[in-house]
Amino acid sequence: MESEKDCIFCKIVAREIPSQKVYEDESVLAFKDIHPMAKVHVLIVPKRHFKNVEEIAASDSDLLAHIVEVASKIANEKYNGSYRLVFNTGLDAGQTVFHAHAHVLTGEKLAE
Ligand code: 5GP
Ligand code: ZN
Predict the structure, then answer these.
(1) Which of 75, 12, 104 minimizes the C-alpha distance to 49?
(2) CATH 3.40.50.300, domain 4-106, yes or no
(3) Candidates 43, 50, 87: which one to mutate for ligand 1, based on the most atoms within 8 Å of Cβ?
């Protein structure tokens, strides 16, 4: 598994830092965001280190499709299937962790 020293999400995937797991399979780990912005706020993180969603799309488009499937599964299990899927990409967009991750926001009617 490709991982980067000092990457917080690589450490969560390696269980060096604890997280509240929501879903896991061979390619992704999903866990609760530590600062939830919605009633249900889950991060879906590829186990392999990519710096952002563009790198996932360029090197493994099946993995990107899989992340969407997992988001849908979480939104159906935790709510009524409605969800917002966000990939902050770059500093000016608010990306703070440079290990690609999808924010799944659901569990309630979201503010527009
Ligand atoms: P970004 O701003 O890069 O799109 O999102 C990073 C997200 O990771 C933020 O929403 C932040 O709350 C979350 N986060 C940062 N560190 C941790 C952590 O150690 N554990 C968990 N569960 N979430 C984290
Ligand atoms: Zn990483």
Answers:
(1) 12
(2) no
(3) 43
pLDDT of 1 higher than 90? no
68 with 62: CB under 8 angstroms? no
Mutate to test the pocket of ligand 1, among 97, 99, 101 (most ligand atoms within 8 A of CB): 97
How many residues belong to the chain?
112
The residue ranges of every structural domain in the chain are 4-106
Query: CB of 18 closer than 6 A to ligand 1?
Result: no
- pLDDT at position 28: 98
The string of pLDDT tens digits covering residues 7-49 is 999 999 999 999 999 999 999 999 999 999 999 999 999 999 9
